[in-house]
Amino acid sequence: MTSPRRTYVARINRVIDHIDAHLADPLDLATLAGVAHFSSWHFHRVFQAMAGETLADCVRRRRLEVAAARLLGLPPEPVLAIALDVGFGSAAVFTRAFNAHFGVTPTDWRRGAYRSWAERHRIELGKIHQADRKAHQAVAEAFRQDERSWPKGPVPRSGDSEMKIELKTLPEVRVAYMRQVGPYGDSGITRTWQRFAAWCGEHGLMEPRRTMYGVSHDNPDVTPPAKCRYDACIEVGEGFRLEGEIGVQTVGGGRYACTEFTGPSTEIHTAWMNLCDWLPGSGYQPADGAPIEIYGRDFEMDEKTGAFNCTLCMPVRPL
Question: What predicted TM-score, i.e. pTM, was given to this entire model?
Fold first, then answer.
């Protein structure tokens, strides 16, 4: 039986996804309560209890985080155009809100002030990974010993070979997902995959094998680690129906820079950072959309080392 809390989780996830998809639209309490199928009277309290921030703070934060990423795009867009696209009524209102959140003006952010913000986040994330190291090893050990989760087989390590990037056009895919909110690269994501794989097995989605996906919705250089969203996903058909905390979304669709990853879960965050570091000299820049990990139908995990393989895909567009 589905617990009431997991149903609440799914509804709050649906609201946050709606916010991201409609940043330029009015995002008032009544509208978002309707998305969640809650009474407006109680929804703001429910949201704060589940999300750890008020509804208004979440809307403001997402508007500013998306704007912060777009300010770094090339060719540069006018600040006013970005402000309007994420739901601010004027450049002046946007500048005040941006300065209050990031401590710098949009212009200074664009000129390089973003680097200190990103560096603070990377240092914080590094400390989280260090503190989580033993827990991550224990979770990874339990995960690879769980016979229900993944096909087992030898997975040779790729060594220190140079990262090879291939540009691909990925189709849209309908997926069911389970969400983890917290630092990228920590043990929470591995635990989520273990729970999700068990759920997929119980619902007949693991035999025959289907393509699975990991979706990272937030930029860890901009979004606080505790607010970063990661979805463990599996391909489903149109007939799939929602259950408990499981949601449905569409992933892919567009041009991606892709590279193959082989290694344990503790190394995948570093691989993503390496792919991001490749971008400045590539002639491409990040495009709108979430980075995706693709776990093919031939996926296997090495039960001795915990190594696995997947394809890392970053949405891109030409400079």
Answer: 0.92
